[in-house]
Amino acid sequence: MDFTYIIDALPDLMKGLKMTLMVSGLGILLSCIIGAIGAALRMSGFKPAEYLVTSYVEFIRGTPYLVQIFFIFYGLPSLGLRLSVFWSGVAALTVWASAFQIENFRAGLAAIGHGVHDASASLGLKRWHHALLVVLPLAARAALPSSMNTIVATVKNSAYLQAIGLVELTFVAVDRIAYDFRAIEMFFSICVIYLLCVFTLSGLGHVLERRLNRPFAGR
């Protein structure tokens, strides 16, 4: 193991990490928004919307992620929609993660008992007050552990995007290996960097979970 070589490669790896964080961050943000909307539609009682969202979730969960990436990058241009490499990566991560976030948020909403709705009605809360101040915090608390798993998986799945030429962390490592043949040093380095990213996200998730689990009266 040549640590001098790793230190020399760090500037290139940091550029790749920056791209990984950018594409992953956008994918996580958009997938959470779509997940919340999709979960609400799936539990709305409007059958066409329920069937549409369910079909989307089952289709994405039932097809390989790499095929979804290739479809977005190579298939969509033939349908008249051409995206850059960066936005193809964001779209691929968003499409994949949103299917799982829909199920995560749906489970969170389903965990809220009918007694909560009755309590809000007896207090005279308006519909949007009930949704924003009661349902949303309780659903977020219930969905947080599984949602964090999807967020962590989104960051790790960004490594697949090197297949369409996105210059993210794994792409940089593989590119340097092609020139320098220092596979051990490069793969060791990106493993450590991915682990640090995942540990950081997991730590933030645990902090948020403890925060949400505090009794409301004690805040």
UniProtKB/TrEMBL annotation:
Domain ABC transmembrane type-1 as annotated: residue spans: 17-205
Organism: Microvirga lotononidis
Cellular component terms (Gene Ontology): ATP-binding cassette (ABC) transporter complex
Primary localization: membrane
Keywords attached to this entry: Amino-acid transport, Cell membrane, Membrane, Transmembrane, Transmembrane helix, Transport
Single biological process term from Gene Ontology: amino acid transport
Protein name listed in UniProt: Amine acid ABC transporter, permease protein, 3-TM region, His/Glu/Gln/Arg/opine family
UniProt cross-references to SUPFAM superfamilies, sorted A to Z: MetI-like
Entry-linked PROSITE patterns: ABC_TM1
Domain of life: Bacteria
Higher taxonomy: Bacteria, Pseudomonadati, Pseudomonadota, Alphaproteobacteria, Hyphomicrobiales
CDD domains the UniProt entry points to: TM_PBP2
